[in-house]
Amino acid sequence: MNSPPPKPTRSDARSNRARILAAATEAFSASTSASMTSIAKQAGVGVGTLYRHFPTREALVVELYHQEIQKLIDLAHTLAGSLPPLVALRGWFEEVARYGQLKYGVAEVIHAATNGGLDDEHYVPFLGAITALLDAGAAAGTLKPGTDPEDVLLQLSVLWRIPPGAGSQERATRILDLVADGLRTRPPESSQGPSDTPSPG
Fold it and tell me: How does pLDDT run across 18-65, given as a tens digit for each residue?
């Protein structure tokens, strides 16, 4: 009599879960209509294994959302502590834009599961991530002091409404330029007015 196949170990399960999430990230970035079957194939696992980890497509999407948001939160603090403030801010904005491309098309699932986007679990830490970047820039004198992080979050939410496809990356870049430019400090205007300028001759 044949022996039953060995049960997967805990490390096997963690590895399978990580591969599924990585494959789902790539698949949804390419097409928001990616099927569970295609994701399982891309992850190198059976469909049954995928469903044991994520019983529904919605469960997979929400888990992916939580993973991506936590990555953004952690990245903001890392960048704020290791790069010049303007470079850190722009680098983080670009990652937020990348997340927006993932979020688009599965927004209804996220809305239903997390009260409209950032849920209570992530809202305050996400604002804290923005605050870390703003405070670093204000301390260096390159970003306006006293900026409300919720105002910045509201501006960034526009990125999540850009439909994927031709021109989407260019549009995101233009929007990021506008947001970043609005946060910069401005050099003081010269005290010399037009009437004080010496006439030639």
Answer: 999 999 988 887 777 889 999 999 999 999 999 999 999 889 988 888
Q: Do residues 164 and 177 lie in contact, with contact meaning Cβ atoms separated by under 8 Å?
A: no
CA 93 to CA 104: how far, in whole Å? 16
Contact between 184 and 142 (Cβ < 8 Å): yes
Q: What's the pLDDT tens digit per position in 5-16?
A: 555 567 888 899
Q: pTM score > 0.90 for this model?
A: no
Give the separation between CA 84 and CA 136, rounded to whole angstroms. 8
Largest CA distance in the chain: 109
- Contact of 24 with 101, CB cutoff 8 Å: no
Secondary element (H or E) of residue 142: none
Name the burial class of residue 78, with classes exposed (0-12), middle (13-18) and buried (19+) by CB atoms within 10 angstroms of its CB. middle
| DSSP letter string, 84-124 | -HHHHHHHHHHHHHHHHHHHTTSHHHHHHHHTSSS-HHHHH
